[in-house]
Automatic annotation (TrEMBL):
<feature type="repeat" description="TPR">
    <location>
        <begin position="46"/>
        <end position="79"/>
    </location>
</feature>
<keyword id="KW-0677">Repeat</keyword>
<protein>
    <submittedName>
        <fullName>Naa16 protein</fullName>
    </submittedName>
</protein>
<dbReference type="Pfam" id="PF12569">
    <property type="entry name" value="NatA_aux_su"/>
</dbReference>
<dbReference type="GO" id="GO:0031415">
    <property type="term" value="C:NatA complex"/>
</dbReference>
<dbReference type="InterPro" id="IPR021183">
    <property type="entry name" value="NatA_aux_su"/>
</dbReference>
<dbReference type="InterPro" id="IPR011990">
    <property type="entry name" value="TPR-like_helical_dom_sf"/>
</dbReference>
<dbReference type="InterPro" id="IPR019734">
    <property type="entry name" value="TPR_rpt"/>
</dbReference>
<dbReference type="Pfam" id="PF07719">
    <property type="entry name" value="TPR_2"/>
</dbReference>
<keyword id="KW-0802">TPR repeat</keyword>
<dbReference type="InterPro" id="IPR013105">
    <property type="entry name" value="TPR_2"/>
</dbReference>
């Protein structure tokens, strides 16, 4: 309406806003045309420069967007929205000094806002000026009117952040005193105990630390960090002492896996055989698919590998013969599925050892008896991948996927195997089951910065000799790479 009036047809800010609207509708070229026209009409307008920056940001041209924001601030230096947008891009590009200056301006303009204080403190934290960061956080904390007996989630997170900065600054005593002072106002009670245990260890207060880690193990007996902390606190020197501790914990928590798994890392020979036998039987009996994964780290020790192989092959022979783990047992026989899980384990075992034909024999035998178990087809695909037959691997992974089409993990694995086999179109169709409607799977995955898919695509195009498509895909990855990769004039760094 405004632009249709001849008097205002060249109104810069209106042209810029039209360009911004067109950009939201996906009309990039028209959007840039209108915004540039608006800038030519009114180069002194902060709105035009801000909108131009927003367009550059949407194209991930962050350096250009920052220049536009700075030009806008020359014309309106106290504009809160432009300052916020600038600070976001500065932190994106790891311009920490610039981020600190921008957050300081925002703090001056809005000293009563929580975000102003926290943002400014974060700037100093990232610059490793811990003293200044702590001073700002404490100043802000004192302005918060939270009664000691009341629990406020945001206040709780503020205290935990303050404590995190203390720990990073190696202020262990201060961190411990701080967490004990505000313990009742913190919502995350588990984290409080973890911080206490860590700080008591750092301060050498081992007896207190051991009590904390014992309590943590009572809460969660499957966290290996707690066992590591307990061992350090108790200063266990001999193997017997360590095994005794794990045995006691295992009795207290009979259903926990870790107290029985960790000793397997420690013991050799006959003792290993005894403990491994006790460990394997219940999981093979009830059917535990991740059993092999749990033990895979032991495969760097050849002696332990041979013991595992001997035990499990003996189980198989005995189960086939009389339905027990050992020919000398009697009583109630093992369920028929036990043999299935033993053979499933052996398939993974021989696959790990590179004996692929034997692994295939085992997995085929299991599939013949139970053709409805996803895990079996998944392992078969994995074995073919290790053999180097990628087409066959993709075929069996697709078979696994067809058994449960709602399983996103298997869906993604299937797409990856297809890409490895240079089946790009099929992989895209597979991914389309979990991408947004109204756009192609490839566009949506690129928008989500799904790096594993994009890099596998590039490799597939390269193997097929489609170098143009591979290069195009590389440019797409490069466009969104500033969010994960930056050099900053130094060695490249990876950022999460």
């Amino acid at each position: 309406m405004i632009l249709s009036n001849p008097k205002f047809a060249e109104h810069g800010e209106t042209l810029a806003m039209k360009g911004l609207t067109l950009n939201c509708l996906g009309k990039r070229e028209e959007a840039y045309e209108f915004v540039r026209k608006g800038l030519r009409s009114d180069v002194r307008s902060h709105v035009c420069w801000h909108v131009y920056g927003l367009l550059q940001r949407s194209d991930k041209k962050y350096d250009e967007a920052i220049k536009c924001y700075r030009n806008a601030l020359k014309l309106d230096k106290d504009n809160l929205q432009i300052l916020r947008d600038l600070s976001l891009l500065q932190i994106q590009m790891r311009d920490l000094e610039g981020y600190r200056e921008t957050r300081y301006q925002l703090l001056q303009l809005r000293p009563t806002q929580r975000a102003s204080w926290i943002g400014y403190a974060i700037a100093y934290h990232l610059l490793k000026d811990y003293d200044m960061a702590l001073k700002l956080l404490e100043e802000f904390r004192q302005t918060q009117q939270v009664p000691p007996n009341k629990i406020d989630y945001e206040y709780s997170e503020l205290i935990l952040y303050q404590n995190q900065v203390m720990r990073e600054a190696d202020l262990f005593q201060e961190s411990l005193e701080h967490i004990e002072t505000y313990e009742m106002q913190i919502c995350d009670k588990l984290l409080v105990e973890e911080i206490k245990g860590e700080m008591l260890l750092k301060l050498g207060r081992l007896k207190e630390a051991s009590e904390v880690f014992k309590n943590l193990i009572d809460r969660n007996a499957e966290n290996w960090c707690y066992y590591e902390g307990l061992e350090k606190a108790l200063q266990l020197s001999s193997l017997e002492e360590r095994l005794q501790i794990y045995e006691e914990i295992s009795k207290q928590h009979p259903r926990a896996v870790l107290p029985r798994r960790l000793p397997l890392n420690l013991v050799p020979g006959k003792k290993f055989r005894e403990l491994m036998d006790k460990f394997l039987r219940p999981y093979l009996s009830k059917g535990c698919p991740p059993l092999f994964t749990t033990l895979k780290s032991l495969y760097s020790n050849t002696e332990k590998v041979s013991i595992i192989q001997e035990l499990v092959t003996n189980y198989e022979a005995s189960l086939k013969m009389n339905g027990f783990f050992s020919p000398y047992e009697n009583g109630e026989k093992e369920p028929p599925t036990t043999l299935l899980w033993v053979q499933y384990f052996l398939a993974q075992h021989f696959d790990k050892l590179g004996q692929y034909l034997l692994a295939l024999e085992y997995i085929n035998a299991v599939i013949a008896s139970t053709p409805t178990l996803i895990e079996l087809f998944y392992i078969k695909a994995k074995i073919y991948k290790h053999i180097g037959n990628l087409k066959e691997a993709a075929k069996w992974m697709e078979e696994a996927q067809s058994l449960d089409t709602a399983d996103r993990f298997i869906n993604s694995k299937c797409a990856k195997y297809m890409l490895r086999a240079n089946m790009i179109k099929e992989a895209e169709e597979m991914c389309s089951k979990f991408t947004r409607e109204g756009t192609t799977a490839m566009e949506n995955l690129n928008e989500m910065q799904c790096m594993w898919f994009e890099t596998e695509c590039i490799s597939a195009y390269q193997r097929l000799g489609r170098y143009g498509d591979a290069l195009k895909k590389c440019h797409e990855v490069e466009r969104h790479s500033p969010s994960t990769w930056t050099t900053g004039g130094k060695e490249p760094q990876m950022h999460p």
